[in-house]
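Lab meeting, item 3. Inverse folding demo.
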């Protein structure tokens, strides 16, 4: 009886800790996914993401840059301006066509602003 009760307790505990571990894993996976993405584009793990909406003026796939005429960016206290962004994830160029209106998420990396998402 005692061993059965103990086994039951162990099973119950491992089932609940498994559930916790699984939800923990999912959080870890999200974090790892973000870290990996950040690592790909350099030391921007600590960078804050900003968002800008604007029109694509030029695209340079070879250099990995895009020039946007973007509206004000409150999080950076930027006025509207036309400027160059770095695009390290080449797949983003699929969404970056000249004259296209886009919303981008970007982060400062050293002296550059790197686009991480195009909406
Ligand atoms: Cu700007």
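The presenter then showed the designed sequence:
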């Amino acid at each position: 009886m005692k061993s059965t009760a103990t086994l039951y307790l162990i099973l119950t505990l491992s089932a609940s800790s498994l559930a916790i571990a699984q939800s923990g894993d999912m959080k870890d996976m999200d974090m790892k996914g973000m870290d990996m993405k950040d690592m790909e584009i350099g030391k921007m793990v600590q960078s804050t993401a900003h968002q800008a909406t604007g029109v694509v003026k030029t695209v340079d796939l070879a250099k990995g840059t895009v020039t946007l005429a973007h509206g004000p960016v409150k999080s950076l206290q930027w006025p509207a301006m036309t400027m160059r962004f770095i695009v390290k994830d080449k797949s983003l160029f699929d969404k970056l066509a000249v004259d296209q209106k886009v919303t981008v998420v970007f982060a400062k990396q050293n002296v550059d602003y790197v686009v991480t998402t195009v909406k």
